[in-house]
Write a structure and sequence with these properties.
Helix 4 packs across helix 5. This protein is α+β, with helices and mostly antiparallel strands. It has three domains: 69 residues, Uridine Diphospho-n-acetylenolpyruvylglucosamine Reductase, domain 2, CATH 3.30.43.10; 153 residues, Uridine Diphospho-n-acetylenolpyruvylglucosamine Reductase, domain 3 (2-Layer Sandwich); 103 residues, Uridine Diphospho-n-acetylenolpyruvylglucosamine Reductase, domain 1 (Alpha-Beta Complex). The longest helix has 19 residues. Strands 6, 7, 8, 11, 12 and 13 form a six-stranded antiparallel β-sheet that branches. The chain has a four-stranded mixed β-sheet with strand order 1-2-5-3, with helices on one face. The structure holds flavin-adenine dinucleotide. The site of flavin-adenine dinucleotide (FAD) has 35 residues, from strand 3, strand 9, strand 13 and strand 14. The site of flavin-adenine dinucleotide has 35 residues, from strand 3, strand 9, strand 13 and strand 14.
């Protein structure tokens, strides 16, 4: 295991902000996981695992503990059946490379998630998804090191309790597991319509009626490249805020002024509305503050266009939350995870 001290975290987080990790370990093997955990336990250090750092922020103080950078690679075909293939991936494999390879193999199941940054090991954490697919749909099981029982365990789909952008790893078991591999079942052949509205519209525009995984990937990449800033060139963490959950009365009140506003029923008389829309209506789309900028094509995305510190991001975040609250009486909440 490669262990370093006082390692700058900003190079490992796509927002390119944040202080230093007191200790930083590159995890290449399962033995490295155990060694890193034992080191942390022996020195009473808190731990945090990162993959691609595309959904994580560190503040200017950094992390006073051990950061484990998941780099464990590898893929193994476990089953090759008439209709599907079961593949186990090392948690440090890059999700988009896994998708690209699956498309080359003419497999369907994850192609609509093309271009989502990060590692496959992080994909179960928030049940990543886009354009009608999420990882839970292809998920078979994962292997993880359980820091409570100090043993490797296999967790099934039921164990992970996947929901919309949620699982036990973001919820009740936050910080407990180090995921070392993820196993997926991918179908042979072509994806079947109906596709997600925007994807279908684009396919129709091009007059495509015969669908392949490669065509869906290509279409999704075109849409995403237009809509989302590439974190390699413009630092960002994707959707910065969660969509807002409001009451039925609040929705009815808003719809009086904005009749086209859509609310999605979430149960218990609550409705989900687009936070991107709220930020846009608050006049903040494209707004710059403290070196941060609300993306001009997607108001849910906050980009770093020259911020010097996490403190600057925090001030921009406060201003956005306050302005939306002032105009709509809705307190929006951050989606991106914090290293703590
Ligand atoms: C431009 C952009 C677009 C995006 N679009 C989407 C989208 O369409 N849909 C979507 O769902 N997300 C999207 N995201 C968010 C992000 O890509 C996903 O959340 C992704 O899964 C994060 O992967 P990562 O490896 O970068 O995770 P990190 O940011 O490194 O980690 C995220 C969380 O997972 C935990 N974690 C990471 N690896 C492990 C592991 N091996 N074991 C245990 N815990 C682990 C971390 O501790 C942290 O809590 C986008 C982000 C960006 C920047």
């Amino acid at each position: 295991m490669k262990l370093e001290e006082n390692k700058s975290l900003k190079d490992y987080l796509t927002m390119r902000l944040g202080g230093k990790a007191r200790y930083f370990a590159e995890i290449q093997t399962k033995d490295d996981v155990v060694e890193a955990f034992q080191f942390a336990a022996a020195h009473q250090l808190k731990t945090f695992v990162i993959g691609g750092g595309s959904n994580t922020l560190a503040d200017d103080e950094g992390f006073d503990g051990l950061v484990m950078h998941m780099c464990l690679k590898g893929r193994t075909i476990l089953e090759d059946n008439a209709d599907d293939i079961v593949i186990r991936y090392g948690a440090g494999e890059i999700l988009d490379e896994v998708i690209s390879e699956s498309v080359d193999m003419h497999l369907t199941g994850i192609e609509a998630m093309s271009l989502i940054p990060g590692t496959i090991g992080a994909a179960p954490v928030q049940n990543v998804g886009a354009y009608g697919q999420d990882i839970s749909q292809s998920f078979v099981e994962l292997e993880a090191y359980d820091m409570h029982t100090r043993a490797f365990v296999t967790l099934s789909k039921e164990d992970c309790q996947f929901a919309y952008r949620a699982s036990i790893f973001r919820g009740k078991d936050w910080g407990r597991y180090i995921i070392v591999s993820v196993t997926l079942r991918l179908q042979k052949g072509n994806p079947q319509p109906p596709f997600y509205k925007q994807v279908q519209a684009r396919l129709d525009e091009k007059g495509i009626t015969s669908y392949t995984p490669a065509l869906i990937r290509e279409t999704v990449i075109e849409i995403r490249k237009w809509k989302l800033p590439d974190p390699h060139y413009i630092p960002n963490s994707g959707s910065f805020f969660k969509n807002a959950i409001i009451t039925k009365q609040k929705l009815a009140h808003l719809q009086e002024k904005y009749p086209t506003l859509k609310g999605f029923a979430m149960g218990n008389d609550t409705f989900k509305i687009s936070t991107g829309w709220l930020i846009d209506q608050a006049g903040l789309k494209g707004a710059s503050m403290y070196g941060m900028r609300v993306h001009d094509r997607n108001a849910l995305v906050l980009t770093n266009v020259g911020a010097k510190s996490y403190h600057a991001l925090a001030k921009a975040r406060e201003d956005i939350i306050a302005e939306v609250n002032k105009q709509f009486g809705i307190k929006i909440v951050q989606e991106v995870l914090e290293m703590h």
